[in-house]
DNA sequence: GAAAATGCTGTTATTCTAACACTAACTTCC
DNA sequence: GGAAGTTAGTGTTAGAATAACAGCATTTTC
C-alpha cells in the first residue's frame, strides 16, 4: 500500500451474460451501443461499479435495470483485465452469467442503449461484439456448459411448466450433443427432480405431452450433495468425431 | 462512462493461494504481515496491480518474487470486492491459485513481509488470516478440489519422480477421501499418464517402491479432451457419512 | 533369521451406460 | 369419418465401469 495514490486511478465494471432459452434455442441478451466507443456494435449489458457497491450487487443491478427481475440465478465467472481492453482508461471487468426465463419479463431498453435484443448464442459468438465481449461471452458460455453437468441449473431457463422434450432440447443445446430420448427420460426421472403435474400441453397440433414442474427441494439437495449429469452423445456421433480427429492429425 | 472521474478512485490487487504438497500434507504459502493493517497476522501473498500490468502478469509477478518460479500452474478463481474488505480504500482483489513443487525452490522473505512459511491448509483455514483471506483460501481450496477431478493437475504438486503411494496420498488429501489402493492403481495406470522409470526409491526403511514420472504429452491430451477422475471413497465411509446425516436431521 | 514396514497384485459381483423400435394419442386434411 | 401426419411414450439387453476384497513379496532393522 504505502499510500501510493497513482494506483487509485482505475475503475471496474461488471458485465452480465444473460442467457435465456426459447424455441429450442439458447439466447443471450445484447445491447446495441448508442454511444462511442464501439457505437452501433452489440455489447453485453454492464456498468461501472459504484464506489460503495459490492460486485454482486452491481451485477444484480444491471440485471434488474434491464429485465426488472430480482431473484434469478447469477454467478460470477471470470475477471478480464487486459491493460488495453477499454479505450477510455484502465477498466477491468468482472463477468457474470445469469439464467432467466424469457417469458418472465418484457424488454425495456434502458437509457444508455438504443436497442436490446435476444440473440442466438452461436450467432452472437461469431459476430463482432464491442470491447472484449466476444471473449467474455465465450468464457461464460463454457462456464454454463460446464455448470450444467454438475448442477441442475437447466431448470432456471425453463418456464414453470415444461415437457420432457423441451427439457431434452435444452440439454442438447447446452451440451451440444444429441441425446437418446429413452435414456434421457430414464435418467432425469430417476433423479426425482421432476413433479408430474398430471396436465397436458394444449394447442399443439399433435399428441400433447405431459407437463412437469421441477422439485425445488430435491434441487437444493442435489446442489448441496453434488450432481452429475454425464449424458454422453450417442456413439454414432462420437465415432464420427474420433474419425474426424484421426483424419486431422 | 461519461467521464465520471470519481469512479476512477479504486484499486485492484491480486492474491495468490500457492499450494504445495509435502509429507502427505497439502500446504499453503502464507506471509506474516509486517505492517498495518493486520500487522502480525498471516496473509496470502498479493500485491496491487500496476497501472499498465495485466492481471495474470501481476499474479505471476507475485509468485515469482516470492518463489523465483516462472513456469508454474496458475489459475484465476474469483474476484472479491466487498466494499469494506480493505480498510484503506476500495480495493477489490482477484484471487488466483497456483500449484508448485515445494522442492523446486527455497523461501526468501520479500521486503514487505517479516516471514514466509508453508502452512497446513486445514489449520490455515481454521486460523484467523488478514483481510478476507479466510474466504479466499476456502474458495481456492474448493476450486482445487474441484479441478483435480477434471484435470490431472495433481502432478503439478509432486516432485519429478514419485511413487504410486505418494500419488495416492496426494489424491486423498485433495479429495478428502480414503481410496482403495488396488483400484486407485488400476485406474491411474490405465490412463497411461505415468511412465515407469524402472528405478526404486532409496533410503527407506522398508521395501522400496518403484518410481514414476508423469507423461506430459498424455497429460495435455487429457487436458484437451476432458478427464474424469471419479474416485469414490470406500462404501464403508459413505455409509458412515449417510448415517451421520440421518442422525443430524 | 525374525519382526516390522510397506509394496504389489487379480477376480468377482454389482451397477451404470448405451443401443435400439414400435405403439399411442392427438390434429388436420380430404 | 377415416387416412395421414406428427410427436409422445415406453423396456430390454449387452457391454463397460466400478467397488469390494486378502495375501504374498521385498527390504531394513535388530
Q: What keywords describe this structure?
A:
homodimer, 249 residues, alpha+beta, Nucleoside Triphosphate Pyrophosphohydrolase, Arc Repressor Mutant, subunit A, 2 domains, two-stranded antiparallel ribbon, disordered C terminus, DNA-binding
Give a structural overview.
- Two copies of one chain form a homodimer.
- Chain A is an alpha+beta fold and 249 residues long.
- Chain A folds into two domains: 5-150, Nucleoside Triphosphate Pyrophosphohydrolase, CATH 3.90.79; 153-248, Arc Repressor Mutant, subunit A (Orthogonal Bundle), CATH 1.10.10.
- The first copy, chain A, has helices at residues 55-67, 121-126, 133-150, 164-175, 181-190, 216-225, 235-248; strands at 11-22, 25-33, 42-43, 46-48, 73-80, 91-99, 113-120, 194-200, 210-214.
- In chain A, the strands form two sheets. In chain A, strands 1, 2, 3, 4, 5, 6 and 7 form a seven-stranded mixed β-sheet that branches.
- The interface between A and B is medium-sized, with 32 and 31 residues.
- Chain A binds a DNA duplex (30 and 30 nucleotides) through residues 163-165, 180-183, 185-187, 204-210, 230, 232, 234-236.
Strand-helix topology:
2 copies of one chain form a homodimer.
Chain A: E1 11-22, E2 25-33, E3 42-43, E4 46-48, H1 55-67, E5 73-80, E6 91-99, E7 113-120, H2 121-126, H3 133-150, H4 164-175, H5 181-190, E8 194-200, E9 210-214, H6 216-225, H7 235-248
Parallel strand pairs in A: 1-6
Antiparallel strand pairs in A: 1-2, 1-4, 2-3, 2-7, 5-6, 8-9
The structure holds a DNA duplex (30 and 30 nucleotides).
SS-derived structural category of chain A = alpha+beta
SSE arrangement of chain A, N to C? EEEEHEEEHHHHEEHH
Greatest interface and its participating residue counts: A-B, 32 and 31 residues
The level of helicity of chain A is 25-40%
> Which runs of chain A of at least 5 residues are low in confidence (pLDDT < 50)?
234-249
- Averaging pLDDT over every residue of chain A, what do you get? 86
How far apart are the termini of chain A?
Answer: 52 Å
Fill in the CATH topology of the largest domain in chain A: Nucleoside Triphosphate Pyrophosphohydrolase
| Count of β-strands of chain A | 9
Radius of gyration of chain A, CA atoms, in whole angstroms: 20 Å
Shape of chain A: elongated
**So what's the oligomer here?**
homodimer
- How many helices of chain A does DSSP assign? 7
Largest sheet of chain A: 7 strands, mixed
Beta-strand residue percentage of chain A: 25-35%
What is the name of the CATH superfamily of the largest domain in chain A? Nucleoside Triphosphate Pyrophosphohydrolase
Q: What is the number of domains of chain A?
A: 2
CATH architecture call of the largest domain in chain A: Alpha-Beta Complex
